[in-house]
Amino acid sequence: ALLRLASLAYYPITFTFTTLKSPLIKDFDDLLKLCDDPEKNPFLPFYLERIPPLMEACKPELVGISITTASQMVGGLTLSRMLRRLYPTIHLTLGGRHMLRLGQSLRELPGYFEAFCNSIVMGSGELALEALISGLKEGRSLESVPNLLRVDAGKVMESDREENIPITEVPAPDFSDLPLEQYLSPTPIVPLRLSEGCYWGKCTFCSRYDTRRFATITPKTAVDQMEDVQRKFAVSAFAINDDCLTPVYLEAVAKEILARGLHVGISLWCKPVAQFTADRLQLLARAGVRLVRWGVETGHPRILKLMNKGTDLEETREVLLASSRAGIWNHATMILGFPTETLEEARETIAFLDRNQDRIHSSILFQFSLLSHSYIVRNPGDFDIVNIDEPLTPFSYEHPFECRSGMNREGFDDFWRWAARHRVDTIYGHPLWYYLRNREYLLLYAARYGRKHTAQWKVCVKGHIVFKAGDRLEIMVKRPEEIPAQLLDMISGLIEAGGEVGLSWIRENLRDAFLIGFALEEGRVVGTLTHKRPKEKYLKYLRKKTDLDLTGYLERGYTYLRPEYRGRGIADRILKALMQGSPGRSIYITIRMDNKDAIALGLRNGMKLAARFINERTGHEIGLFTSTSHTA
Ligand code: SF4
Q1: Domain range summary for the chain, segments of one domain joined by +
Q2: Which of 49, 195, 322, 460 could be 465's S-S partner, Cβ–Cβ 3.0 to 4.6 Å?
């Protein structure tokens, strides 16, 4: 909120700890204006105050500025522009992933190029920088510097040499010039890079489609680097931001970490494939993996196939469950609005998050972007795309497009607003992780407090207070007719999210129930249990299966408690309230015999096993528990 308030002074620019957004920048003219405007650009006064003393102290002849993401563009280019004006004799070179895009646009615009820098390193910088330094020192032409764009006699010239050091020969990162203690973090988190490229490289939406070149440093070298950085900089949190590493490679890294007894906390990006077995995930967790950002992408099988992710939803669920059981925090990245996606399919993605909350602890939603170099841009017909335009600004990788099928723009915008709200309000209930914004902080929380505790912290949005799930709980029991429709919808939605019961009759059965128990916190239903009036047909079925006549009994069912509320006796509290509201009534409940938690809850609260039978449809063994004595 404070940053939003501070942003007002620079309206219409908004900034957070990690981003700066400006609707003012549509082209290079706008960018140049903003870089020179101390009234609208918060970076400029800051640099003008802080940079000159540093330049005086160092007297550099060459300054390199790396711009790796779009959010660093204004900060990075304001700095280079200011240095260019104040120190015209210094050679300024720009590099980083985002400069690849800007460099391509600036090729045609030597005037703008010169406004910001003398040269741009396109791609890997190690060899280019070395050659640039010696070229400048010896006063040689820069023609032979590899991977370099520069202006010569008013023309942008490109080096005809492309040279890269293979990842296997890149030395360990050196953070010695960074004031790590000044970062807004209780302990430093440093990035490590173990590979280049992506081993899969086939997702149709990805700009890395078919880059082919995939290489890793050896697991031993990876852990050497970790150990080295840890020793020199007292760092124990590592963000391994590689596009996608294989399970086998990660296993080898984990074994190396364990063999050396290193104590580290690690975050990774991974693709949920079956090779992430339970054993492997346990091993990764033991080695210090605390947070994995999984490319789940969608909850709908047709869309997943179109994405060519090489994953399967059932397999994904199993991997995520095994990962969660290993104690790893699972963060899922999801894409909505994929070409041809219908509203029902997009809703299925949101329902997937809801149904799998026990294993997807946090998630992020992205609107689909049609990226340059992706398979879809090159094969639009496969995705019903009829028209692709050039990106709207020279800084963008995203192409506007028209698709003949799926949601239209308006329909998607409505859905997106609903989905964003529903995810935070209903699925996760304003969790602390959502307000951390920066996922690296989540690594610190997961490493220090563990997955379970981190998931329990909530934010009361009105008062900006952090509290533990369950601390502000109200337990209620009501007849269905006493429950407002909106609340009944929430209860029904929660039962659906539980996923253990048939969905078709939930609402009708709730309306016909004897008594509904539920737990409310901050206006969100987080747990429920119901005493239903059983259907005659079902009683006959049970009689046939067990020989028990349960006429006059109430059936207990529709039991579900959000994962972060489990283990705090909340289900017992709802159950006790429900029993108090049903005096003198006999109760039965059917439970799968492998559902240990539900059985324990029943037994703790006076239910006894009366019979067992097999459900032919599912093959599961079912226990029939009653509140009155029968012989099992
Ligand atoms: S989305 Fe991830 S897994 Fe797919 S090609 Fe891109 S980097 Fe690789």
Answers
A1: 2-158, 185-429, 473-626
A2: 460
Helices 278-287 and 247-260, packing angle to 10 deg: 40
CATH class, domain 473-626, is: alpha beta
CA distance linking residue 429 with residue 466, whole number of Å? 12
Q: What H or E segment, with its residue span, contains residue 291?
A: strand 289-297
How far is ligand 1, taken at its centre, from the CA of residue 243, in Å? Answer: 6
> Ligand 1 atom 4: the closest Cα is on which residue?
203
CA end-to-end span of the chain: 60
Q: Is the CB of 243 under 6 A from ligand 1?
A: yes
What are phi and psi for residue 115, nearest 5 degrees?
A: -65, -25
Q: Write the CA distances from 527 to 524, 559, 566, 590, integer angstroms.
A: 9, 8, 9, 19
Which residue is it, tokens 């700890």?
Answer: 17
Using CA atoms, how far apart are residues 304 and 311, in angstroms rounded to an integer? 8
DSSP letters for 522-588:
TTEEEEEEEEE---HHHHHHHHHHH----TTPEEEEEEEE-GGGTTSSHHHHHHHHHHHTSTT--EE
Mutation probe of ligand 1 site: the residue of 97, 203, 364 with most atoms within 8 A of C-beta: 203
Q: What is the ipTM of this complex?
A: 0.99
Identify whether the C-beta of residue 68 lies closer than 8 Å to the C-beta of residue 96.
yes
pLDDT of residue 503: 59
Beta bridge partners of 560: 528
Q: How far is the CA of 244 from the centre of ligand 1 (A)?
A: 7
What is the CA(341)–ligand 1 centre distance, in A?
20
Considering only CA atoms, which of 581, 590, 587, 584 is closest in space to residue 614? 590
Structural fold of domain 185-429 = TIM Barrel (3.20.20)
> Ligand 1: which residue has its CA nearest to atom 5?
201
CA of 246 to the centre of ligand 1 (A): 12
Closest CA to 350 of 291, 433, 421, 302: 421
Q: Which amino acid is at 8?
A: L
Q: How many residues does the chain have?
A: 632
pLDDT (tens digit, 9 = 90+) per residue, 58-69?
999 999 999 988
Place of tokens 């104690």: 327
Degrees, nearest 5: CA angle 308-309-314: 115
Structure tokens given for 90:
């210094």
Which residues, given as ranges, of the chain have pLDDT below 70? Answer: 209-212, 499-504, 629-632
How many whole angstroms from 199 Cα to the centroid of ligand 1? 8
Q: What does the alpha-carbon distance between residue 129 and residue 148 come to, in Å, rounded to a whole number?
A: 9
How confident is the model at residue 117, as a pLDDT?
94
Whose CA is closest to 112, among 103, 122, 121? 103
Is the CB of 205 within 6 Å of ligand 1? no
Query: Which overall architecture, per CATH, does domain 2-158 show?
Result: 3-Layer(aba) Sandwich (3.40)
CA pair distance 25, 393, nearest whole angstrom: 8
102-117 pLDDT, tens digit per residue, is: 887 888 888 889 999 9
Task: Report which DSSP code applies to 367.
Answer: E
CA of 200 to the centre of ligand 1 (A): 6
Residues in contact with 239: Cβ distance below 8 Å, sequence separation at least 6, in sequence order: 189, 190, 191, 192, 266, 267, 440, 443
Ligand 1 binding pocket includes 201 (Cβ within 6 Å): yes
